[in-house]
């Protein structure tokens, strides 16, 4: 009800502003939702009079009164009782009984689709989500990405968009040449068969650690000339052979491809088991290799050179120059303004004498040895998504350490001629451990398996300790749902932009403001409904029987679609997580202050209200990928 009321207020305010004689557009953001119990402000307010007054040179208070009078004359939406002016703000006050009737009726009629939105022309969104590297275990950073992106894509789908989830695997690049070298030199088939990811990780770390050690020894300098030559030769042997293996892979060499495909298949099999446990699905598993092996990289390189937006460096590399004034709003097709010309870059290069010293950023798409890089494959991905999906948005859920890279990618994409597609980098903070930054090379990681096992063990202990009438064979199933609620809520509810120091004990805690707290509030609602003989029809109840505590809960139920609006606008599911926690607090207050089943008055009304609350919990938790529980 609040969502439709807000839309009605925006439309009415737009008419009122015009009829009051002011030339200013009214945006949805000009109507703000306020707290239910703030009588002075009302449930909705607008500060539009300040901007209009400043532009017209008039007193905002007088402007507000003029617009409020015009809005009264035009007519207020159903459920809005009156409009007042206070300190220059236009305040809209709801009719509480009308709000209750409309909100409960809307939830009852829409059920599982309450909060959803249908669009005549939805955006086609193709999103990079999860995106782990093969031959390595899923770690807690991937867990954050996977859970954040799953919740957000659920919300975007709920809001009527056509979403395609692409688990854009990191499965191509020189590191796989190094891994092929290491496996051929030191691999153990039996160890690979027993635990492929563990063995491949060990080989990857071995290569990186040995190369780092040899580099440190070479840099130390206090060595004999013969020893220095030996160190250089040893290091070159491994790194050069790794490059050779990757070149063989790019050329389609049968031995290299067979080994690489074995690594990829084993990795995906292990990944799928974790994703199934998390309840996460993907539409695509294309990965970087797809664009290399299917010729999309070549399409991009040829296009960049033919359209004269890329230039060759002195070392035969190929790059797209990016100027300082190219970066603003590059992701927004309506606001991006880039200079695709190479003339400035040629002048800057001539003046500086080298690409490194030139006054532009070089976005490489071909290295000096002829191999491709991330940028090539990401531009190829955009090309593919436009051609094959007619995508309106290409979205990337990737940690904030890649912010600069995506700014450059978006500029390069505009210069390539991809001018209509919206490009969005949904960043999130990095995860470190109490001991310091995570490092796959150094073996300092926390795997998803470790987190899930620890959370489930913690939940299992609590269910055994506090569960009532829970059969032994049901404990694991209940503990699994509680554990996933803990981990998922913790990941989504945290400030997405902040770095996290990950403490596994805190991450799997069931106490405080957590997912299980919201689950428990839902279970409490179920218990009330189960004890009732039935839920009355919404049309048969009397909203005037509700008290202030009831109305507060109804108001919060009405906020749900507006919260999803905010999630969609921000590309962030955190507002939904915070809302569900607040709703749980409000419902628990309702439960403790009011009688329901044996109430002398309003028993039927509160059963309808409890049923509506359970529905909103189910809808919201479902978007976060959290299951509800009949018993806890």
UniProtKB/TrEMBL annotation:
Its EC number is 6.1.1.19. InterPro entries: aa-tRNA-synth_I_CS, Arg-tRNA-ligase, Arg-tRNA-synth_N, Arg-tRNA-synth_N_sf, ArgRS_core, DALR_anticod-bd, Rossmann-like_a/b/a_fold, tRNAsynth_Ia_anticodon-bd. Residues 518-632 form the DALR anticodon binding domain. Gene3D superfamilies: Arginyl tRNA synthetase N-terminal domain, HUPs, Isoleucyl-tRNA Synthetase, Domain 1. PROSITE patterns: AA_TRNA_LIGASE_I. GO terms for cellular component: cytoplasm. It is an enzyme of class 6 (ligase). Its main location: cytoplasm. It catalyses: tRNA(Arg) + L-arginine + ATP = L-arginyl-tRNA(Arg) + AMP + diphosphate. GO terms for molecular function: arginine-tRNA ligase activity; ATP binding. One of its GO terms (biological process) is arginyl-tRNA aminoacylation. Keywords: Aminoacyl-tRNA synthetase, ATP-binding, Cytoplasm, Ligase, Nucleotide-binding, Protein biosynthesis. SUPFAM superfamilies: Anticodon-binding domain of a subclass of class I aminoacyl-tRNA synthetases, Arginyl-tRNA synthetase (ArgRS), N-terminal 'additional' domain, Nucleotidylyl transferase. It is found in: Cytoplasm. The keyword Protein biosynthesis applies. The keyword Metal-binding does not apply. Residues 7-94 form the Arginyl tRNA synthetase N-terminal domain. SMART domains: Arg_tRNA_synt_N (SM01016), DALR_1 (SM00836). A motif ('HIGH' region) lies at residues 132-142. PANTHER family: ARGININE--TRNA LIGASE, CYTOPLASMIC, ARGINYL-TRNA SYNTHETASE. Belongs to the class-I aminoacyl-tRNA synthetase family. This is Arginine--tRNA ligase. It comes from Haloplanus rubicundus.
